[in-house]
Structure formats: C-alpha cells, structure tokens
From TrEMBL:
All copies of domain Fibronectin type-III, residue ranges: 5-95
Protein name (Swiss-Prot/TrEMBL): NPHN protein
Stretches the record annotates as Disordered: 92-115
N-terminal signal peptide: none
SMART domains in the record: FN3 (SM00060)
Family matches, as Gene3D superfamilies: Immunoglobulins
Annotated Pro residues bias: 96-108
Length: 115
C-alpha cells in the first residue's frame, strides 16, 4: 500500500535563511519510505527541487529572510505518495549590522600632558 502522511509536522528551528522541520512518520505501507519536502514563498524562488530524506527531520536552506513559506511534506514508497501535510512558517529577519563602535584614541606614552 501507499504510505500514510507524516504526522505532527513541526518547526524545530529557524534562521533568516533556513527552516528546520521535524515530523513523525506515518505507517510506511509495509515498504521502505522516504520523505519529500518543498517550500514555496511569495515572490521567493523555491528550492531547485524537492528535497528528499529518509530521516524524520530536515533543514531547508537558501530561503529569504522575513518571508512566509508554505512547506509541504509527503511520504513516498514503491507504491506511491501519501497525501501531503502542510505547515506555514516564517523565516526570521536578519539582524541589522551593529553601528560602528567609536573608540577614543589611546593616550600617548608619558601621560601626554603639556606643562
């Protein structure tokens, strides 16, 4: 049989350019299975193809900061694909560069005091 969809899809971490996801596998249909992931965002290029893993977690990289993504995960075995499960997640905003720190020049040797 085809596999059941993954269960409990969740965000396990994020950054400005990545989303880390984890899930619990559904019934595998009695055959070896793997999982296909894809992230689609508005005005954002998707990853070049589905990312595939046989594990139960994966980090999607190369994403745009502060952008919502619809992540789709489905299981696949030799008999076919499961129904997809979806999650909407937003990458974090990249921190702004800190302002330059002004440092006072060092005092010249000998105290630098005039008589």
């Amino acid at each position: 049989d085809r596999p059941d969809p993954p269960r409990a899809l969740r965000l396990s971490g994020l950054s400005g350019t990545s989303l880390s996801l984890a899930w619990d596998p559904g019934w595998d249909g009695g055959l070896a299975q793997h999982f296909l992931l894809r992230a689609d965002g508005p005005d954002a290029p998707p990853p070049p193809a589905h990312l595939v893993t046989s594990g139960f977690s994966l980090t999607l990289g190369g994403l745009r900061p502060d952008t919502p993504y619809d992540v789709t995960v489905h299981a696949r075995n030799a008999r076919g694909d499961s129904a997809p499960v979806r999650l909407r997640a937003v990458t974090s905003a990249l921190p702004e560069a800190p302002p330059p720190v002004w440092e006072a020049p060092e005092a010249p040797p000998g105290g630098g005091e005039d008589p």
